[in-house]
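Justification of computing resources. Each target in the renewal requires a structure prediction run like the one illustrated here; the chain below, 107 residues long, is used simply to show the kind of job we budget for.
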Amino acid sequence: DTTGYVDWYVAYLKRKNSSIPVGMIALDINENQTYMIDYAILPEFRNQNIGLLLLQQFSYYLLDEVGLEEIRGCINPANVASIKVAEQVGFKKEGITSYRFFRYIPR
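Resulting structure tokens:
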């Protein structure tokens, strides 16, 4: 559902010298100019620090190069691995925004 979103960008991560995607990362911009990151790594490529590197590099790019002041992300509370990755990158728990998601903002 893209209701309330005015723009979004999606990038697919591929292995070197391959057309097979490993995962994706997206930036959604809503009508309140809130920037929301979403990412996913295919199951066969998980537990290899790919998600950590992807989220870290993309977050640094958005903050340092693009000049965003904050980035947010919603993570299903059952997704412990993604919560750990977000915290390792520097996102911190802001609170529960719905019954399914936690919200993070960079430190």
